[in-house]
Design a protein that fits this description.
Helix content: under 10%
Oligomer: single chain
Number of helices: 3
Shape: globular
Number of strands: 25
Length: 483
């Protein structure tokens, strides 16, 4: 039995310094309708350039406040991570193992987020951009435009900060953590063979969930600004630590160590991962928030969820040559015909799920990053999917104007993965420590095409069609000297 307790204290240093002139930046809070300024500079009338406050007296405009303690994020102190583990030999060849623990993201996410506010109003760094135009015969070389038109040549911040669409963070953002637990039984079938079955689970809490915030509270006709909580604030990206996830898996494995020239490993996992709207670390696998005021409507299987995953590998030394079952007892002949090894790696698994989407702001909520979905009006499954029609496109319909679609997130799957890699090795021993090896390796040995994700844009002319594939065979020959 093992017990452990980990303690983390995340301290986020203040952003910028006065002497570096980079502390005069801000962060929008779409929950309160306020804009926080880390440290207030003087008036633009006095300073003449950014960073400065564009009011005659240098006072902050309405709904703009100075950040308490000149800090945007305070971190998450007192992060306690208990751990417990147990291993018990039930019988001479059977053991059980179980463990649980709490694990915090104490570094990567929080520090990445704390850096994202740099250059915001009353500075102008986020409104400076390099825009590479597309080359044409008249202008064959890319040009760079350094100032947005609405800034003019003054290099001063706009009168108010509300129209900037940027990466903002909840000042109350907290470190995410995962509660992990498992239970398994391991049994030795023979001195060289072990089988194991495990239950593995985890729950993610306080995960980053970023989306366009301050959209209209309800869909409807007319100007969506009138239906926003803070009409003066442009909908913009705002990350909060409110996401959650769960993972449950049955894992089985068979392992045979080298015996009689053969080694093999077979692993199978049956699992399900569920999250809300965003998948992966900071949503890198994709976020699809249709309605920010009903996040549970975007709760579904994760974008990386793979229910069935089988991976099997084997290596076999042919029983030919010196010291093998088929030996001629002639050193020269055994050296010539011996030293062969064949290897294989088989993968069979589901591919990642995907969603059906509708471009544009059909609900008219003012969302600059719309992820609208259609209505489900039938069964999308077809018995014999093909590249020209992977699913029943008639199962989806355009929602009525100013409404949300009822289709869930990640409800369909593309072609499943089936791949066999193989290799043939020939070893030439030099002495007990050195040998030369030739390798012939093939990837996608069976040349089985794996169809890519079909077109999931409901408005596309080729909606439901597969436009590409992977899985083509490739080969390589190599040599290796080992000493």
């Amino acid at each position: 039995v093992n017990f452990g307790l980990r303690y983390d204290y995340v301290w986020i240093p203040a952003f910028g310094k006065v002497e570096d002139n980079n502390i005069y930046t801000g962060n929008m809070d779409t929950d309160t309708g306020e804009y926080w300024v880390l440290k207030v500079p003087g008036s633009c009338a006095t300073l003449g350039k950014a960073p400065c406050i564009p009011t005659p007296d240098g006072k902050l405009p309405a709904h703009v406040i100075q950040a308490p303690g000149e800090r945007i994020m305070n971190g998450s102190p007192n992060m306690w991570g208990p751990r417990v583990g147990l291993a018990y030999r039930m019988f001479p060849k059977t053991a059980i193992r179980t463990s649980a623990g709490v694990f915090f993201d104490s570094w990567a996410g929080v520090y990445q987020s704390a850096r994202g506010i740099g250059g915001n109003w009353p500075m102008v760094a986020t409104t400076m951009y390099g825009n590479l135009n597309n080359p044409t015969p008249a202008t064959p070389f890319p040009g760079v435009k350094m100032n947005a038109e609405w800034l003019g040549a003054t290099n001063l911040p706009p009168a108010l900060p509300w129209q900037m669409n940027w990466w903002y963070m909840d000042p109350a953002w907290q470190n995410g953590y995962s509660i992990q637990y498992n239970f398994g039984i391991q049994h030795e079938l023979s001195p060289s063979t072990i089988v194991e079955i495990d239950y593995v689970g985890s729950g993610g809490r306080r995960l980053d969930l970023g989306a366009a915030r301050n959209t209209a509270v309800t869909p409807g006709p007319g100007d969506p600004t009138a239906r926003m909580r803070f009409p003066y604030m442009k909908p913009t990206y705002f990350a909060k630590s409110i996401g959650r996830s769960s993972y449950n898996a049955l894992q089985m494995s068979y392992r045979r160590r080298f015996s009689g020239g053969l080694s093999a490993v077979v692993n199978y996992t049956y699992s399900k991962s569920i999250d809300i709207a965003c998948s992966g670390f900071f949503g890198v696998e994709g976020c699809q928030v249709q309605n920010e005021y009903d996040l549970n409507s975007s709760r579904s299987q994760s974008t990386f969820n793979v229910p069935h995953n089988l991976v099997a590998s084997a290596a076999y030394e042919l029983p030919v040559g010196k010291g093998k079952k088929l030996s001629t007892n002639n050193k020269v002949i055994d050296y010539i015909i011996g030293g062969w090894q064949i290897n294989g790696l088989l993968q069979l698994r589901n591919s990642n799920p995907y969603s059906i989407t509708i471009p544009g702001d059909l609900a008219n909520i003012g969302n600059p990053n719309t992820y609208m979905r259609p209505n489900v009006v039938g069964d999308s499954h077809i018995d014999n999917p093909s590249r020209s029609k992977w699913f029943n496109t008639a199962a989806f319909a355009l929602p009525a104007p100013y409404t949300y679609g009822n289709a869930g997130r990640n409800i369909l799957r593309p072609d499943w993965l089936r791949r066999l890699d193989a290799s043939l090795f020939r070893s030439f021993p030099i002495n007990e420590r050195m040998r030369f090896e030739l390798r012939w390796e093939t990837y996608g040995t069976t040349n089985t095409p794996i169809y890519n994700t079909p077109v999931s844009n409901f408005s596309a002319f080729n909606f439901g069609q597969v436009t590409g594939s992977s899985g083509e065979r490739s080969m390589q020959v190599g040599a290796k000297f080992i000493w």
